Amino acid sequence: MLRTLLLATLLFLTGAAMAESPVAITIHGGAGTILPENMTAEREQAIRDALERSARAGHAALEQGRPALEAVVAAIRILEDAPQFNAARGAVLTNTGTVEMDASIMDGATLDAGAVAAVKGIRHPVEAALHVMNDSPHVMMIGEGAMNFARDHGLEFKSEDWFITDFRRQQLEAMQADEQAAQARRQNWYSTVGAVALDASGNLAAATSTGGMANKQWGRVGDSPIIGAGTYADNRACAVSATGHGEFFIRHVAAYNICSLMRLTDMSLDEAADHVINATLKDVGADGGVIAIDPSGRISMPFNTPGMYRAAIHPDGRFELGIYRESE
Predict the structure, then answer these.
(1) Does 99 score more than 60 pLDDT?
(2) DSSP assignment of 5-20, as one string?
(3) Does domain 22-324 have CATH number 3.60.20.30?
(4) Catalytic positions, please?
């Protein structure tokens, strides 16, 4: 009887401890030449509202005891539907005026991952990436194969007109009218979206979704769907989602690099993330930023551009939102 009572007490205390474990989430909506003078009050407010809704949707899932994987998907779904960002609805256009999307997701507990690239019509590409991870033996699927896989798993599709906004049409027209300006815009504006989270069980997850690079050609794919480049999660170190000039993030395996620095050196999350963004990448002329979270819920959001759309809810419940470089 005493043994049973002791066991019940231990299970109760363990459950209570688990319930009290801190949860945290941080999201981004891209980095680039984001300046107050280039932003209307209405657009800025719409962006702030979407960022807050995204962070709170992911955090609500965590507070309900849902796993980090579900939290990052919940957060990114909000941003994929928000036309202000370069992901799903509102994605940038290719040189032929179409939308091609990429997404990835990773589980820090198992190192399982899934990704899709060059897909069209899928309302929530992050959900397609999740199904690749959970319902196939593969890590990445592309193009028609990925789209057929998404249909087989009942994902929602939309017509191309649903994804394309007037803002993106005008952006493409301006870029194609002035190739020099087009190159400058490609180098300085990245509004990929991403989320990283820590759940009550101490597990990490990361996910990223994007429309890629405006005016892109030849089926170009950037870092967002590439595990280790734009997305990485490992419970032994951290979870990372990146935004920036994808070719450089691929070459320097940016997301994995941050986690490796933490695992193999005594660097903190802030130190590792800052080193990759403001030393490794900046030294080769690469613009961008990351969001990252460690197993204790510490959050880091470094970027080397004038601004990065970002929001976070820390383990103590503190909400943080920023757009520009200076403190807000």
Answers:
(1) yes
(2) HHHHHHHHHHHHHHHT
(3) yes
(4) 192
